[in-house]
Amino acid sequence: MNIENYMQTLGRRAKEAARILSQTETNHKNRALIAIANALQDKQADLIDENKKDLIAGKANGLDDAALDRLTLTPKGIRAMIDGLIQVASLSDPVGEITDLSYRPSGIQVGQMRVPLGVIGIIYESRPNVTIDAAALCLKSGNACILRGGSEAIHSNQAIAACIAEGLREAEFPAAAVQIVETTDRAAVGELITMKEFVDVIVPRGGKSLIERISKEATIPVIKHLDGICHVYIDDKADINKAIRIAVNAKTHRYGVCNAMETLLVAESIAPTVLPLLAEQYRAKEVELRGCAKTCSLLIDCIRATETDWQTEYLAPILSIKIVSGIDEAINHIHQYSSQHTEAIVTEDYTLARRFLREVDSSSVMVNASTRFADGFEYGLGAEIGISTDKLHARGPVGLKGLTSLKYIVLGDGHIRQ
Amino acid sequence: MNIENYMQTLGRRAKEAARILSQTETNHKNRALIAIANALQDKQADLIDENKKDLIAGKANGLDDAALDRLTLTPKGIRAMIDGLIQVASLSDPVGEITDLSYRPSGIQVGQMRVPLGVIGIIYESRPNVTIDAAALCLKSGNACILRGGSEAIHSNQAIAACIAEGLREAEFPAAAVQIVETTDRAAVGELITMKEFVDVIVPRGGKSLIERISKEATIPVIKHLDGICHVYIDDKADINKAIRIAVNAKTHRYGVCNAMETLLVAESIAPTVLPLLAEQYRAKEVELRGCAKTCSLLIDCIRATETDWQTEYLAPILSIKIVSGIDEAINHIHQYSSQHTEAIVTEDYTLARRFLREVDSSSVMVNASTRFADGFEYGLGAEIGISTDKLHARGPVGLKGLTSLKYIVLGDGHIRQ
Q1: Nearest by CB to A414, which of B117, B246, B358?
Q2: A240–chain B Cβ distance below 8 A for any pair
Q3: Which of the four, A103, A349, B26, B369, has the lowest number of CB atoms within 10 Å?
C-alpha cells in the first residue's frame, strides 16, 4: 500500500463528506448517532472477540497491566460507549446558531453564525472507546473525521469501525463522514498531520510523548494539552475544613488524571495547623509526601522535594508540598512551574480570591473548589474531546463548540458602503 | 549584532512585560494610549523629517508609486494615527470580562474570563501607520508586542518607536510592552516566527507573498488572510436596483482592497436584464470586464475570461463575470474558487437567502449588502488588526477580542468531586 496515496484519498473523501455534513439537519445527525449505538449493541459479541485478539497480541508484545486495562473492552465499557452516543445525540446542536445579531449605524445587521471546522484528524493511543467518543463529537458538530488509533487496538478499532459504517449507512450518511485509518504504519500519522489541503485541525489524545511528537511535526493546527501540573494554594485565610476536603479530593479522588493536584502550596502561618491534619489523611491513603525544608520540619514522614518534583506530573499517589509566604509567592511558583492546566486557591478573603482568578494564567482557575472539576461534563459541555492548554481557539475542556468556528453574517436591504 | 540573541532578548522582555500588562487596569492602559498620541503630536515635524529619509532611499531603490504612497507620512496621516489611538482608548476593555457564569448541578459556578494572549509578533510591510495601529490594539488588549516593519520604513518606524517609548514612560508602563525590531536583517523575522517560548501568535500584514512565506515558515500560530477573491451572486429573484447598487459598490468603491468583489455571478434568467445596465456603469468607471461565453454574447465590450481569471484577486478595475444556472452552480463556483473571505447574494427569496447564509463557507456571508462592509469598523469591532480567513481562533475581521482568549473560572464553597 502506498501510504501517501491512501491517506490523500481518505483526506479527499473526508473533505467532500464535510461539505455535506455541514448542511445536515440535527435530527439526521442524531439518527446516525443512535444507529451507531444500535450497531454496537447488536455486535457486542463480535467486539469482544476482536478485542481478545488485541489483548492476546498485547500480552505477547509485553504491554503492561495499565495498557492492557485501557485496551480491554468489557460489556460495561461497550455500554458506556452506547450511553455516550445517546448523550451526544441529546446535546443541542451548535451548528447554525446565530449570536449577537445587531444593527450597525450603516443600517446593516451583523452577527455571527457557528459553523463546523471541516475535517478533524484524531490520533490516539490504544483506548478503543476514544474511537466512539471522537466520532460522536465530530459527527454532532458537523465535522468529518479521520481517526487513527493505536496499533495495539487495530482489531478492536476495525470492529468498531464496522459498527460506525453500519450506523452511517443506516442513516444514509456519507461513509467518509467517519473514516478509520486501516494501516498501523506510522507513516500514516506523518501524512495525516501535514495534509493541509484536506485536514483543518488535529486533536491528539494520549500521553505527553505522543502529543509532543505530533505538535512538533504537524503543519496543521493542533488542539492539545501536554500535561497537568495542577496546584492548590491554601491561603492563611482559608477555612480549614474546606482546605482539607479540597486538598484531599484534588489529590486522591483519582491519581492518573490530568486534573489531579500535583503540588500543594500552603501559606506559612496556616501550615502548622493544616499540614499535620492533611498528612494524616494522605498517610491513610498511602500518598507519598515530598516537601520543602519547612514542610519536612512539620511532617516527620515527608521526604525532601527536589527541583524536579516541582516540574513533575506524578499521575500517582505522590504529592509535593511547598510552604510559601503568601499569595505572591504562590502565584510566582505557579507562574514558574504550572503547565497552565488548572489551579485553585482556598481562601475566605474576597480580595485574594479576585486576585488569584485574575492573575493566574491557566485554562481553569478556581476558588474553593477541587481541581478535579476541570472537565467537560462538570462544566456542562456535555462531552469533551480533550482539554486544551493552548490559548488560541479553545482553552480548557473542548466540547462541541470547540470543534466549530464563527463566521460573520451580514443582512442588508441593498446597503452599500459610503 | 547576533540576531538570534537580540531577538531572544526582545522575546524574554516581552514575556515579562506581558505578565504586567495582563494585570493593568483599563484607565492605566488608556493613559498610555493617550500619552503616545500626545508624543506623536509633539514630534510631528521629526516624524516627517525621518519619513523623508525613507522616501529618498525608497526612490533611489526604485520603489513604485503605490509603495511610495503607502510609505509616505503626511500631517493628515499622523492625525489619523492620533485619532486611531484615541479611538482605541475609548473602546471597552475586553480583558477580565466574565461570561456565562452559571451554576452546575454539582453546586460549582462555572464561567469564562477573557484574558490576553500574551506576546504578539506583528510583521508588516512598509506602512508606518501599521506600527501605531498594531501597538494600540495590543496594548489595549493587554498583550505585549514585537513589531517588525518593512525595511524601507526603518527611519519612520524608529521615529514612531521613540514616540511610543515616550508615551509608555510617561504612563509608567514597562518599555518592553511595545518593542520595535531595530534591525532590517531578514533573519530577525525567521527568529520571531519560531520563538515558541516567547511569542504566542504572529499577525502578518501585507501582500500575499509575505503572508505565504511567514505561514509556511512559522512554528507559532499565525492569524492571517491570504487573499480576497470575493463573489457577488445576483439571483433571478433579485431586486434589480439593489443588485446594481451592490455590484457597482462592491467592485468600484475601492479597487485595491481585499473585500472588493472580483467575480460577479449572475443567474441565467436575470442576466439579459441586469448585465447590460451594469456594464454601462462599469464602462463609465473604466472597469475591464472578462466574462464567460454567455456573458460575452450579452456584452460586446467583454473579453473572454480564462480559468486563471476565476482564481485571481485583481485588486484593480477588472471584473470577471459568470452566468450560472442558479444558486447551486453559484455556490459550487464559490466553493471551488473563493478564498473564503467574503461572498454576497442579492435576492428577495427567503429560502435562497437562508441557504446561501448557511451553505457558503466564508468568513463573511452577506445578503443584499456590499462585500465592502467586511471590515472591523463596519462590524462594530472598533478597530481591526487584520482579517482572518482561517477558521481556528478568529475568523473574519479581528479586533480586540481576537487578541484575547477565554479561561474557565470556577467558584465554589469547598466543593469536591464526588
Answers
A1: B246
A2: no
A3: A103
